[in-house]
Specification:
This protein is α/β, with parallel strands linked by helices. Helices cover 43% and strands 18% of the residues. It contains nine helices and nine strands. Strands 1, 2, 3, 4, 5, 6, 7, 8 and 9 form a nine-stranded parallel sheet that branches. Strand 2, helix 3 and strand 3 form a beta-alpha-beta unit. The longest helix is centred in the first third of the chain and has 18 residues. It is globular and about 45 Å long. The protein binds pyridoxal-5'-phosphate (PLP). The site of pyridoxal-5'-phosphate has 14 residues, from strand 9 and helix 9.
Length: 222
């Protein structure tokens, strides 16, 4: 299978799973996670109609995307990996969405750098929740999430789109997706960025609005 065939398969799965559960979102955005993959692998998907891509490193995205965007200006790139505060300015001009807001100091950096910029490209922000309470993972602790959301709202820092999570790798993800769904409902947030190649079915059944799929579209990363 080539990339476009895999894209068609993933799109069909999304439609199929969306119909089968009462909790699913009406609109689901497929984020094609293109980290480590070159422009040659990405462009056929753009030509086939895919509009939203995901990258996990500022540096890699900065090297890859400006050239692609010259030719395809309406393509969106979302940052799905952790953001160091000193790269905030670059991230705000490079990405259309940041899924990994996870601490007050980063909120402050976004506010400060946004005020300095003539044009902020980034319009969508998600708070990343460390849903499995894993030490090595990014994201705000479950118990601290309401406070961070409240801080963002009180500061009028930026409009908050929703919550994002990456569940522990070797556990059944559904309970974590269900927890994120409940947290978002309690906080009156409407978007849920959850689900990757191995678990986007469960994520869609539990209300994901943004699924981040890499391997199922591009093949294994090397
Ligand atoms: C790499 C990555 C993905 C995509 O993972 P696949 O298993 O290749 O689909 C999704 N989300 C995040 C945060 C990632 O870093």
């Amino acid at each position: 299978m080539n990339g476009v065939e895999r894209l068609r398969g993933v799109q069909e799965n999304i439609l199929k799973w969306q119909k089968q559960s009462p909790l699913t979102a009406k609109n689901i955005t497929l984020i094609a996670v293109s980290k480590t993959h070159p422009a040659e692998a990405i462009i056929p998907l753009i030509e086939a109609g895919q509009k939203v891509f995901g990258e996990n490193r500022v540096q890699e995205a900065a090297e890859k995307w400006p050239a692609i965007r010259e030719k395809y200006p309406d393509v969106q790139v979302h940052l799905i990996g952790s953001l160091q505060s000193n790269k905030t300015k670059e991230a705000l001009t490079l990405f259309d969405a940041i899924h990994t807001v996870d601490r007050q100091s980063l909120v402050e950096a976004i506010v400060k750098e946004s005020a300095k910029l003539k044009e902020v490209r980034c319009k969508q922000f998600f708070v990343q929740v460390n849903i499995g309470e894993e030490e090595q993972k990014g994201g705000v602790a479950v118990k601290d999430t309401p406070e961070l959301v409240e801080y963002i709202r009180a500061q009028k820092a930026f409009p908050l789109s929703g919550l994002m999570c990456v569940p522990p790798v070797d556990e059944t993800p559904a309970p974590y997706f269900a927890l994120l769904h409940k947290m978002a409902a309690d906080l009156e947030l409407s978007n849920l960025s959850m689900g990757m190649s191995g678990d986007y079915e469960a994520a869609i059944r539990l209300g994901a609005t943004h699924v981040r799929v890499g391997t199922a579209l591009f093949g294994e990363r090397h």
